[in-house]
């Protein structure tokens, strides 16, 4: 299914003239998006609690105010604080200051899609979601290069939500080539990558390590071959430019033959993955089960403790133990 792909907006500063943008949270995405918008000629202030990010914003020359003040003064708010704290911060510090026709801009669809933000019907809701870490968003802007981005209008109370979304994306430097999407699509794809793809990749490395270690090969050689050399990162970099099959031309003919023959023999394994992935998508993500488990009011306060307990279990696996020993020897 094809989606609408956008081109550059004529002038973000003109479209947003007379409106103040508040970047809520000067962290990973906040620092990049605030600087890009300012450099694009937009009026930007930063709303941040009293921490190291507040100091960084002040050092960068921004007017930094409390989140409450930012919500009262701005007409457009980029909500760039972590998903897990957004509902409480929005309820207590942002919602009381919102006016009819204001715009909430999210970079993650999570809280909007799962109904965790109580946003008045008189407020526009749009999504501008760069598919890049903040440093990359800033670096690409300075090189006048765009990055992939998903853009959507979720609620248009003012009649100008689309124009606001496109202008904000343009000001950040991510509109050229951006794709029309929705918070549902963004959150499903994001969570699917995190809960299906990456755990499977880690499980494959774990299984590979166990087989090779049982065959008597050394931990250093195994882990160097699997990923510690950095070769997988190099391969993925090529994949992003020429595709999965296209990058095979950079490998030896022996490598290409071995990869292709075993890829084409993996039908049963691929069928098993499809079944598992469908369960993750439908039973965990789209059903709301994961959101309820992670973001339920009775579980959020101990989020750090829950993650720490899971990390402790993961760090006890054979792969993790071997990895730590190898990295310690290399340090």
From TrEMBL:
Superkingdom of source: Bacteria
Family matches, as SUPFAM superfamilies: 6-phosphogluconate dehydrogenase C-terminal domain-like (SSF48179), NAD(P)-binding Rossmann-fold domains (SSF51735)
UniProt pathway: Amino-acid biosynthesis; L-valine biosynthesis; L-valine from pyruvate: step 2/4; Amino-acid biosynthesis; L-isoleucine biosynthesis; L-isoleucine from 2-oxobutanoate: step 2/4
Keywords, alphabetical: Amino-acid biosynthesis, Branched-chain amino acid biosynthesis, Isomerase, Oxidoreductase
BP GO terms, sorted: isoleucine biosynthetic process; L-valine biosynthetic process
Domain KARI N-terminal Rossmann: 1-182
Pfam family of the protein (one): KARI_C
Family matches, as PROSITE patterns: KARI_N
GO MF terms held by the record: isomerase activity; ketol-acid reductoisomerase activity
Annotated InterPro entries: 6-PGluconate_DH-like_C_sf, KARI, KARI_C, KARI_N, NAD(P)-bd_dom_sf
Protein's UniProt keywords contain Chaperone: no
Keyword Amino-acid biosynthesis: yes
Similarity annotation: Belongs to the ketol-acid reductoisomerase family.
Alphabetized PANTHER family for the sequence: KETOL-ACID REDUCTOISOMERASE, MITOCHONDRIAL
Protein's name in the database: Ketol-acid reductoisomerase type 1
């Amino acid at each position: 299914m094809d989606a609408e792909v956008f081109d550059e907006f004529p002038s973000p500063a003109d479209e947003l003239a007379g409106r103040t943008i508040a970047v809520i949270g000067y962290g990973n995405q906040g620092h990049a998006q605030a600087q890009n918008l300012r450099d694009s000629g937009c009026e930007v202030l930063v709303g941040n609690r009293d921490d190291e990010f507040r100091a960084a914003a002040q050092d960068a020359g921004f007017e930094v105010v409390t989140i409450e003040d930012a919500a009262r003064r701005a007409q457009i708010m980029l909500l760039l604080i972590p998903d897990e704290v957004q509902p409480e911060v929005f309820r207590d510090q942002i919602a009381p200051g919102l006016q009819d026709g204001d715009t909430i801009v999210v970079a993650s669809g999570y809280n909007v899609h799962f109904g965790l933000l109580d946003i008045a019907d008189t407020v526009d809701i749009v999504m501008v979601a760069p598919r890049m870490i903040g440093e990359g968003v800033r670096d690409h802007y300075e090189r006048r290069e765009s990055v992939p981005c998903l853009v959507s209008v979720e609620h248009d109370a003012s009649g100008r939500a689309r124009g606001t979304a496109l202008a904000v994306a343009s000001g950040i430097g991510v509109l050229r080539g951006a794709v029309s999407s929705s918070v549902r699509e963004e959150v499903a794809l994001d969570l699917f990558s995190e809960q299906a793809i990456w755990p499977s990749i880690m499980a494959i490395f774990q299984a590979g390590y166990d087989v090779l270690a049982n065959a008597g090969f050394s931990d250093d050689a195994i882990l160097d071959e699997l990923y510690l050399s950095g070769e997988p990162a190099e391969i993925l970099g090529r994949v992003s430019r020429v595709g999965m099959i296209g990058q095979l031309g950079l490998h030896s003919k022996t490598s290409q033959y071995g990869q292709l023959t075993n890829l084409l023999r993996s039908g049963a394994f691929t069928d098993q993955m499809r079944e598992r992935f469908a369960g993750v998508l439908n039973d965990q993500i789209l059903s709301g089960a994961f959101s309820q488990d992670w973001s339920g009011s009775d579980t959020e306060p101990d989020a750090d403790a829950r993650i720490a307990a899971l990390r402790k279990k993961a760090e006890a696996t054979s792969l993790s133990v071997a990895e730590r020993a190898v990295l310690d020897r290399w340090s």
